[in-house]
Specification:
heterodimer, A: 341 residues, alpha+beta, 2 domains, eight-stranded mixed beta sheet, 11 helices, globular, B: 277 residues, alpha/beta, Elongation Factor Tu (Ef-tu), domain 3, Rossmann fold, seven-stranded mixed beta sheet, 7 helices, 15 strands
């Protein structure tokens, strides 16, 4: 494990940015946001960014390919380019876990080459949480906020940033920074983990359990009468799906530029009525059905297809952003039976 | 440039023939610019066709895999992409990618069985691939019955092929019906579900259904009355799709994705899905 004094953070970031594009959370008018580092940029103190980190690998919109149309003829233009190496600093444990959840979708055969390209070139420097919020419930999904995964796991311990490389990519980057950093025994990190764990245990959602959900529980929950009450006030705005680090539904749309056609992929939301609408009919006519789809997917369908892994990381973004204060925690409490009373 | 295959990037297809089947159904023949089939498929599988600038949509491949020269798609005009496809002329290029989905088990569970095909309207399109596959490998299957109904005589898709080819095959019996009487129609009149019950098929065969949901619903009830087990009945689903490879999330029903786990489902598999299709 290596460490660097906090007052030298700028030189650390500068050294990373010499070779790779570095992104880190900075404060903006709209809250904390991952931005490209520039000399003097200050790392945000916020617990987490307003939007998740999924944009790095699965951007909100991306150009998939172009077409040239000439009379009856079409030319397909492959616009893919090898992504440059980049480093994301300050990714929290929940968001790091979300990458694994996205991987299981995009890297499953047939592999999505757009996602894979970015994923291969991105180095994740995660940052352990020290002061989790009351909307945090990553522990429900077995995530330890005090000890995230990542290529390089970082802990901010008072006067120093401690960095532990966990993967080949991480080791390569950290060794490049050797001249700036010094070896540390990790005692401060262990001490911090202990304190953070105590804080995590005292969170209001610390006892929230996902045990009653999971693989193969479709029949148990699909027809539950509680969906009606839970979904009643849902506006179908889709905010929850946009801030969610694991929501990955997408749309493909063409745009005619006047000189050709660009085909785009954009985030989409199962909360929208036209998500499933066909000329032949609409299988999810009501907001109840669309609302239910989102939570059933995260708590039952995804785990069924992925060895029990839930498609929620407990980041709490939907808790703070939903305009009607409805969220996955309320759903789990209402449907989850005794454990969540 | 990335030197790996990307499933979302299509191939160019050329429309070499357009057949007008009904007032709102046309059948398009598609090959690659060098005159070959775009890819191999199995009966029941689908392909994504697109018109750049208009959109991409999933269609069942109507032609049988045994056709080595081209693929055919019977398409009903009912939206942006299909509207555009219907306005095309021969020689137009489109894009094509696939094949997608789980096919009918024509080489396993269907082998040696009597086959009962039941279709309504444009529902014949996905079944035509299986029917012609079974006709091609005639000795692998038992007796073939085809029940096909439509609103009117003019709405029967592939009418010429049905009358001139299917009905003349040994061991193949075609039962056509239309919803309402027409002066020039001498065949059966009535809805498909009732006709299936009237014909009283013995439940010792495989039944494959495709058609409007209401037809499927009542025909299934009829088949159950006739003694068919759920493991003998197959259908093919249609849901909105964007990727075709189980990632975009649109065709997700329960833990299944219709584009990759379907579109073909056996009735007992379908029963395990939530009622959202």
């Amino acid at each position: 494990m290596r460490k660097i004094s906090i007052d030298k953070l700028n030189s650390l970031f500068s050294a990373i940015a010499e070779n790779e594009t570095l992104y880190l959370p900075v404060d903006t008018k709209a809250g904390a946001k991952f931005e490209k580092w520039h000399d003097g940029a200050v790392l945000s103190d916020a617990l987490n960014t307003v939007r998740s980190a999924k944009d790095f690998f699965f951007p909100q919109t991306e150009n998939l390919m172009d077409f040239k149309v000439d009379g009856k003829n079409i030319e397909i233009i492959d616009t893919r380019e090898e992504c440059e190496d980049f480093v994301i600093f300050g990714v929290r444990a929940c968001d790091v876990k979300s990458f694994e959840i996205l991987d299981r979708v995009f890297l499953a055969e047939p592999v999505d080459s757009y996602y894979k390209n970015r994923r291969e070139h991105g180095v994740i420097m995660s940052l352990a949480c020290t002061k989790p919020h009351e909307t945090c419930f990553c522990g429900t999904f077995g995530i330890d906020a005090s000890s995230p995964e990542g290529d390089i796991v970082c802990h901010m311990t008072g006067d120093a940033l401690c960095m532990d490389a966990k993967t080949e990519k991480g080791k390569a980057l950290l060794s490049r920074l050797d001249s700036l950093t010094e070896e540390t025994d990790g005692k401060a990190v262990e001490e911090q983990k202990k304190v953070t764990k105590e804080r995590l245990a005292k969170l209001p959602l610390a006892s929230l359990s996902a045990d009653s959900f999971g693989a193969g529980k479709t029949e148990k929950f699909f027809g539950a009468p509680e969906w009606k009450e839970l979904s009643q006030a849902c506006l179908g705005c889709g905010t929850c799906t946009f801030v969610c680090p694991t929501c990955q539904c997408y749309d493909i749309k063409d745009f005619n530029t006047g000189h050709g056609v660009k085909r785009f992929r954009c985030w989409d939301s199962c909360m929208y009525s036209d998500f499933t609408k066909m000329s032949a009919g609409q299988p999810r006519l009501t907001q109840l059905e669309r609302f239910r789809q989102r939570f059933m997917h995260k708590l039952v369908y995804y785990p069924t297809n992925n060895g029990g892994l839930f498609s929620c990381v407990g980041c709490g973004r939907c808790l703070s952003k939903c305009p009607i204060q409805m969220n996955i925690v309320k759903v789990m409490k209402k449907l989850g039976g005794k454990e969540n009373d | 440039m990335i030197d790996v295959k990307e499933p979302l990037i299509p191939k160019i297809g050329v429309v070499t023939d357009i057949r007008i089947d009904t007032p709102d159904v046309k059948t398009f023949r598609v090959v690659t610019p060098d005159g070959k089939k775009a890819f191999e498929h199995k009966p029941g599988q689908c392909a994504m066709l697109s018109v750049p600038g208009v959109g991409e949509a999933m269609f069942s491949i109507t032609s049988s895999p045994t056709n080595e020269e081209y693929m055919e798609f019977s398409i009903k005009k009912c939206g942006c992409v299909t509207e555009w496809l219907h306005s095309m002329e021969v020689g137009q290029q489109i894009t094509i990618r696939g094949p997608y989905g789980r096919p009918f088990p024509v080489d396993t569970e269907f082998v040696g069985k009597d086959m009962l095909f039941i279709a309504g309207g444009i529902g014949l399109a996905p079944l035509r691939s299986v029917i012609n596959y079974c006709r091609h490998y005639r000795d692998r299957y038992g007796k073939i019955d085809i029940v096909y109904g439509s609103r009117s005589m003019q709405d029967l898709v592939d009418y010429k092929e049905i009358i001139d080819e299917w009905a003349n095959d040994a061991g193949v019996t075609v039962h056509l019906t239309i919803d309402r009487e027409q002066p020039e129609w001498t065949g059966h009149v009535g809805f498909v579900p009732n006709y299936v019950k009237e014909l009283g098929f013995s439940p010792d065969k495989i039944a494959i259904l495709c058609g409007p949901p209401i037809m499927i619903k009542f025909t299934l009830a009829g088949l159950t009355e006739l003694g068919f087990e759920k493991t003998q009945v197959y259908t093919t689903l249609e849901l909105r799709m964007k990727c075709g490879i189980g990632k975009c999330g649109r065709c997700n029903v329960g833990a299944k994705y219709v584009c990759k786990d379907g579109p073909v489902f056996r009735l007992d598999e379908l029963d395990e899905l939530p009622d959202e299709y």
